[in-house]
Amino acid sequence: MDHTSDHTPAVHTPRDPRDIQDLWDQRYAGAENLWSGQPNATLVAELEGMRPGRILDVGCGEGADALWLAAHGWDVTALDVSQVALNRASERGDALGLQVRWLHAGLAEAELAPGSFDVVSAQYPALLRTDDAAAERALIDAVAPNGVLLVVHHSLPSVEQAAAHGFHPEGYVSPADVAARLDDSWTVEIDEIRPRHVSTGAGAHHTEDVVLRARRQP
Ligand SMILES: C[S@@+](CC[C@H](N)C(=O)[O-])C[C@H]1O[C@@H](n2cnc3c(N)ncnc32)[C@H](O)[C@@H]1O
């Protein structure tokens, strides 16, 4: 799958939710398949073997993670700001006979019920940083007691390398931004950089993941 430097909202980073939606819709419309079509390795590594429950896939894109989760017994809500991506994802789900709740919304605008997911997964979600940390708070608030928050992003290039792609990494929510907002009702289980091996799709050039996994107290 993914990701950021070559696909993320770039140069003049949009702030208005409609502009963000338009940008991502255009990006998806410009490719038959933007990402690899395979579930993200970190998602699989972290959730394989866990008892399935309610999971929120934030920025689900073309749905490879959501469909893998549904196939493994999870009750999946998959949210994305791009209707083009969701159409593609739901068509694949229908073809596979898999049930997923596809939700067209920006994370901060979705008004998710607090504590309503056993796992919240955000895999390279490209969420804009805002002064009120709306995205970070929405991710954290959606996790149920004893639930898990899994945030994965690329290990970002230098500011100079990113600028060469017209991308400003400081404009986007990182796993560290989320970790910084976890209070003492959370345990950070994993906070590390891992090698990443993806050979197809627009994110194939990224070779490292930043992985945050945290659990809310029961
Ligand atoms: C880099 S892609 C990652 C897609 C998918 N998670 C994957 O790993 O292939 C980022 C996704 O986040 C979505 N996105 C961007 N801003 C969003 C927001 N505020 N709320 C929900 N989704 C958003 C984009 O439409 C895009 O599908």
UniProtKB/TrEMBL annotation:
| Residue ranges annotated for the Methyltransferase domain, each copy included | 55-147
Q: Does the keyword Transferase apply?
A: yes
SUPFAM superfamilies the record matches = S-adenosyl-L-methionine-dependent methyltransferases
Q: Say which domain of life the source belongs to.
A: Bacteria
- Mind telling me which Pfam families this protein's record contains? Methyltransf_25
Keywords associated with the record: Methyltransferase, Transferase
Q: Which Gene3D superfamilies match?
A: Vaccinia Virus protein VP39 (3.40.50.150)
GO MF assignments? methyltransferase activity
Q: InterPro entries this protein is in?
A: Methyltransf_25, SAM-dependent_MTases_sf
Tell me the Gene Ontology biological-process terms attached to this UniProt entry: methylation
PANTHER family, sorted: PUTATIVE (AFU_ORTHOLOGUE AFUA_2G14390)-RELATED, TRANS-ACONITATE 2-METHYLTRANSFERASE-RELATED
Its protein name is: Methyltransferase type 11
| Source species | Cryobacterium arcticum
Q: Supply the source organism's classification.
A: Bacteria, Bacillati, Actinomycetota, Actinomycetes, Micrococcales
